[in-house]
Amino acid sequence: MFAVEKKILSWHLVLACVALSIGTLFGPLQALEHMGVNLYPALQVIGIQSYYQGLTLHGVLNALVWTTFFITGFLMYVMVKTLNTPLSKPGLSWAGFYVMVVGLVMAAIPLLLNQASILYTMYPPLQAPWYYYLGLTLFVVGSWVSGWSMLATFLGWRKQNPGKTVPFMAMAGMITMVLWQICTLGIASEILGLILPWTFGLYGMDSQLARTLFWFTGHPLVYFWLLPAYVSWYGMMPKQSGGKLFSEPLARFAFWLFLILSTPLGFHHQYLDPGVPAVWKFLHAALTYAVFFPSMLTAFNVIASMENGGRARGGKGLFGWLLTLPWTDPSWTTQALAMIIFSLGGVGGLINASYNVNLVVHNTAWVPGHLHLTVGSGVTLTFMGILYWLIPHLTGKALWSKKLALWQAWSWFVGMLIFSRGMHWIGLLGAPRRTMLGVALGNYGSADWRVPTLMTGIGGLILFVSATLFFIEVIMSAYFSKEKAEVEMPVAEPLHAEVIPAWLNNWQPWLVGTVVLIVVAYAPMLIQLISQAQFTSPGFKVW
Amino acid sequence: MIHIHKYEKWWIGLTILMLVAFATLVGVAAFSKGFQVPEPWMRVDPNTVKDSGAFSDANLGLHELAPGKYEAYLLAQSSPWRFYPSELSIPVGSTVTFYVTSVDVQHGFRIQDTNINLQILPGQVSKATYTFEKAGEFPYVCGEYCGVGHQGMFGKIVVK
Ligand code: HEM
Ligand SMILES: [Cu+2]
Ligand SMILES: [Cu+2]
Questions:
Q1: Which of A130, A176, A524, B26 is the most buried (most CB within 10 A)?
Q2: Residue B68, by phi and psi: left (phi above 0), alpha (psi -120 to 50) or beta?
Q3: What ipTM was estimated for this complex?
């Protein structure tokens, strides 16, 4: 069953892991640089010209390529499995995959040649060659095409099963892909409408408008990363815990809320921008608080489901159920640790979102400290945990070493806590992000940067070990494991067999809500920015 | 309606209360106590901004408007990476309004140990005001990646 889908998924996973292996390589180098150990001169022999070229590769490969390949493959597979229907147009999924690969290659060439060292945010008027932007566009368009293939399958199922409730994970996966489709319109219009004509010299650049279009996509992007992890936390982890999903209706409700609330709040990345009035920033701050609500729903529901599992496994007392959870299961443990780290990231996120409080942390090392708790761990560690059942599921062979996988998870957890603590701390001391702090220390730093940068370096080294363990585990399990095993995809049952009300099974009200909120939160300001745009800036290559 | 557990109802209520409280506190601090984020001030042409007017060589730096009240005009530039001017001296207790813009790419402007933190865009003038109550040296630092020399982009305010 699902041989084609498995093949499509496997190719997505291979490329995701290749991207992560190159991308994460730079992480520890950056952390060491912060500590004062600059290894970049030695990297020139392999063509890495600067810290910032490496940082661009780190951001693009980890945050964009690893995540998007993993997500498009994973959500497609989860959908066909839970609907128990093969892809209606597998060719479309393949086409999406190939378009992504072509885009990736086009973008990778200038990245590796140090012609596109503009970081993953690509803020104009820093200017890379046109084919870099075109490559990124194709990469995103490829992921759209994969989404259309999912949509075709989804709609086909609905036609054949009129009136039936869509299984939770299929619905959640589809919502995620639709969110992605809507929110990437921002970056698509930035590249096609502003950047490409500008690289051809047709007109100049208005950086404020470009930033605004970028962050239209940039914030929902984090939900595109996160929601697939939530699919696993809600839909699979309860089963892996030995229990059931505490409240399925509220899980569905949370996903719908993410659909309508993820996009209309991009100005929370632009609190300090000179061209956006404060009231608009405040509106987006309030909406950002609103999107924290479904995350709080998730926290309760997911933890209650685990408690249900722990108690089913014999756990007693207020906290006794924690001990009976499957701590020897690498897939479960990796994801549980991801959740713990992510909850810390959530607290930091609330601080970042808090309007004027953002003045304290904006553009400081605090921010990468935060994002490694979220996308760098909450999401990435969850995906690693998923791979610990998914690879055996695909190959029919047992995980190569459970022990190694457990060591990997715990070392990531510990390394990340130390690393991220250091980053948050130097950020509060005023160290900027995206900066060679080892050099900056001598320029404008102070002696109290030493301990936190040391933590960053040590944490980074532990993470390096952990990442190495991860890739050993993945390669050995995928290609060299001998022991046969039949591992099924975990699918949690709901705790209460309830009828899902129609409003939780119907797209229309939510899609209308999405469009209305986007129009309210963005249209007036976008119209103003466009009508008052001044296309003055030429492109700069300053690296 | 859907069934919601009693504890979960409490949790939802608590969450809403917390978020409303945060929004209120932040909003009051901003709109009534003046702890505000930057607002649009002025547009300029980054290609010609140096040539004349507020950001011309002759006008960059500090201007005393009244005793203890200053305005300061600064330009951010890549390659070489620096702020013009790179040093400002003021007496303790001075209130300074900063106007900063870029002649090329995006930059940042953050004064260490203060809450002054600006995103600097070509074509826009960023503005912020601060009162320096303590003597000492306050570096101002570029907070946005602006090319390979970014880590060397800074200046300082000497408060005597
Ligand atoms: C081996 C583990 C890792 C280490 C030690 C590490 C280290 C770092 C450091 C030190 C920075 C800050 C650089 C600077 O601001 O100058 C950074 C930035 C970043 N990292 Fe990581 N990282 C790791 C893994 C990851 C993972 C798994 C992801 C995402 C999936 C990720 C995503 C990012 C992003 C998006 C940035 C911001 C890039 C930018 O500012 O343009 N990192 N990393
Ligand atoms: Cu955001
Ligand atoms: Cu800079």
A1: A176
A2: left
A3: 0.96
